[in-house]
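Risk register update: the risk of archive-format incompatibility is retired. Evidence:
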Amino acid sequence: MKRRNILLGASSIATAAIAASAGLSIAKQPDAKIAAPVAKPAATLGKNIQITKDLPGYYVTPTGTGKFPAVIVLMEAFGLNQWCKSICDRLAQSGFAALAPDFYRGTTYAYTDTPGAIAKLKSLNDDAIMGDVGKSIEFLAGKPELNTSGIGVIGFCMGGRYAFLANATYPTKLRAAISFYGGGIDAAAGNPLGQKSLLDRVPAIQSPIMLMYGSEDQLIAAEEHGRVATALSKAKKRYILNLFPNAGHGFMSDRRDSFSPEAAAEAWMMTTGFLSTNLKPKKAKK
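Archived output:
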């Protein structure tokens, strides 16, 4: 059996397993175009806040009261834009508080301005970004409405790589990580973005991670998927790797030309299931 078919089969199995453990029904999922993140909340649920004096962000909690699990949302290279905020709102609708730190301190780039976004990305420092993630964890720890023993991280594009790194940097403070098309997790030396491979950080990982890739992503070679999976397997870490057919880089965003409604719908269901499984308190058996 070819490697691609094995990965696609694993994706289907993982979908069913996660949905079942989270109490979801695959058969009852609505049409893909409705289920995908293209549907915007009726009103903005969250608000712009200051995580610390020098770090702005966006914060939203579910309606009602209770000790909510929390998710740190790490932005794409285009900044903390309305799409990133809409992901936070959707997480709140699914029962999770969501916090998105603004690594760019107010600057955003249009999806048509890839050169500007890439230039900004190249100016970032991994240690500084992990410092911002640490400040975000501390912010959440001070919120009485949250279950701070259940904090996860999810990232997209540039943020997908940082979600992987955060899972290794804060192994005792994060309970789950999801990386959407995180290019550069195993970046080659001397790559144009100046990124470092993160595979040497794999031994530090303690919490499960789910990796999401598109089969048509021209920015992340299939060989990189294999190297990441091999490193995690050799270190005996808990992970799921999902490959979505006919999906390219950025397939989750309805603001991008690469948006794939079908892949986004399935990926969102898997995302909320994975987070529910790992962040929400388990109900005691009667």
